[in-house]
Design a protein that fits this description.
- The structure is a homodimer.
- Chain A is α/β, with parallel strands linked by helices.
- The first copy, chain A, has helices at residues 4-14, 27-33, 51-59, 64-69, 78-90, 104-112, 124-138, 149-165, 180-192, 208-215, 238-245, 254-268, 274-285, 287-290, 306-313, and strands at residues 23-24, 36-41, 71-74, 94-99, 116-120, 141-142, 171-175, 197-203, 248-252, 294-299.
- In chain A, the strands form two sheets. Chain A has a six-stranded mixed β-sheet with strand order 1-2-10-7-8-9, sandwiched between helices.
Chain lengths: 314, 314
């Protein structure tokens, strides 16, 4: 469905609106992990997350009529900012449905980009009901955070860049929530670095993808994790790609996520959100598998309330 | 005393042992500051601070006989790690006198590089007494954190790189503690970008450089600040250079330092220690002066106990 050419075209389309984020390495993390880790720093991306890619790719393909009505989405955070930013760049309106539990920094981000926020309860039914109302009222086009081929294609460009910058990766890990980043990453590997094995990192407290691959059908997320970017259940468009391309999901505990997050902050001197630390936690948990290998990791985002992070490190 | 050629030679000498750190920018910080700020990210340097430069430059110039005895220093933190790392690279011993109040992360860093730590009380007399004893016992060569021309020359290479990467800076700010970074930065500007005005940022709670420039002689630091890299009094070797080259010292409060530090963590997604946030705090305090200008800032380091930082952000 998503072709190699589609990813290449998406990359051209969004290039001027996103950062080509740096790849960082850390000697001390390599020593701790027993392998060579290459971090694709999407925490340094616009809006502080890879989500800027997919949102921009989708928004740039709206028709003039659609643009007049604006765009809408529901999101726990990073996609929300990405949609608001894409709308601001295009000079159109954006309507964002967010759970009231969303980190303040993410709400502030949406407002700063001129997005209009509609708060709802922190469950998927409440989000969808509220979004349907907003769309009914405004006529805006929904851009779903992950269950959208243009969004998935945009997210694939992060891994494409990593493959261009770091050849011969044995493994590439991405976190999985709804599966937009993971499916895009898996397709990028298939087309641009077929020898690279793509593995997902997932919180044990929200291991729907792990269970879905086992059972062969989409299982619901139980959503008990500090990795607030990974609370959602894998989508009907992302899951088939993940099922075909991703051979393994490594699940990690909350303690393992916090410990990996601390390692990244302390050793690399960069701020990542808990979700972004899940792949490193997965590598540290499965050292034998990665021993001596070249391992890519997509650091998905850096949007974290410092007060909240403080409590994790206290 | 320190020539242009000396800085160029130092840069060649240490090049293979240090990172050429990136220059980062932030649209939202530019908007907050009203000018274009270019951050030289020495928090991403080896040992997490610019100190790797000066220590390496000094250590590489030891005689074979001196190397046999090893190197020693007293330091509240980053220079300590830099000396231990330089010694480890050269395969020699290092002896580090540290106040017992030093952040754990800095002590761990020294031990990881094979340095031997001698703890003392947190005042300059206790440090110097302990260091004299260590040197008497071991015959090690002292490499002072700032009052050392080879160290100062090494620190100058950070600004040299920034000038190479970002032409036509109107201003360049560095924090000032003992003055090693500031004197090196001022000399680099004199030789490599003479139209750039060098300004120091200093905590009001340890404003010895501000007072020293006013009075024309070295005044003692009162050392009441969370910026633990800036507790020391400006040195007899650094002060004359600062006096000649640095026209202004901007002093900032503890609240201003924390606020600037938070801005860097939240917006740039990088970890900096309080000392490193002092120049941005200075720019934000004096917006009129910098309005519309191109402003360089040396982000001096990123070594901060996350527990300690947590309390600042709580």
């Amino acid at each position: 469905m998503i072709t190699k050419a589609a990813i290449e075209e998406a990359h051209q389309r969004i290039k001027q609106y996103i950062h080509r984020t740096p790849v960082m390495t850390s000697k001390s993390i390599d020593e701790a992990a027993g392998c060579s880790v290459f971090f694709k720093c999407e925490n340094l991306q616009n809006v502080g997350a890879f989500k800027a890619r997919g949102a921009m790719n989708a928004a740039l393909q709206l028709s003039p009529d659609q643009k007049k009505k604006g765009i809408a989405t529901h999101s726990s955070g990073n996609h929300a900012q990405a949609i608001a930013r894409a709308a601001q760049i295009l000079g159109i309106k954006s309507y964002i449905v967010m759970p009231h539990t969303t980190a303040q920094i993410k709400k502030k981000g949406v407002l700063a980009y001129g997005g209009e926020i509609f708060e709802c309860d922190n469950n998927i039914a409440a989000r969808e009901t509220m979004l349907a109302e907003v769309i009914k009222k405004t006529g805006a086009v929904e851009i779903h955070p992950f269950n959208n081929y243009e969004v998935m294609t945009g997210q694939a460009t992060a891994a494409k860049e990593l493959f261009e910058d770091v050849p011969q990766l044995d493994f590439l890990l991405a976190p999985v929530g709804g599966g937009g980043l993971l499916s895009g990453t898996a397709l990028a590997a298939k087309y641009f670095s077929p020898s690279t094995v793509v593995i997902a990192g997932e919180p044990a407290g929200s291991d729907d993808t792990y269970r879905s691959i086992k059972s062969g059908k989409i299982e619901q997320a139980q959503s008990q994790t500090i990795a607030d970017g990974l609370l959602t259940t894998v989508g009907v468009k992302t899951f088939p790609i993940i099922q075909e391309q991703v051979k393994e999901v490594i699940t990690v505990t909350e303690e393992e996520i916090i410990s990996a997050m601390r390692l990244i902050w302390e050793r690399m001197k960069i701020v990542v959100e808990p979700s972004a630390a899940v792949p490193l936690a997965s590598v540290l948990k499965s050292k034998e598998k990665f021993k001596g290998k070249r391992v890519g990791i997509i650091l998905s985002g850096g949007n974290v309330d410092l007060e909240r992070a403080s409590k994790l490190f206290a």
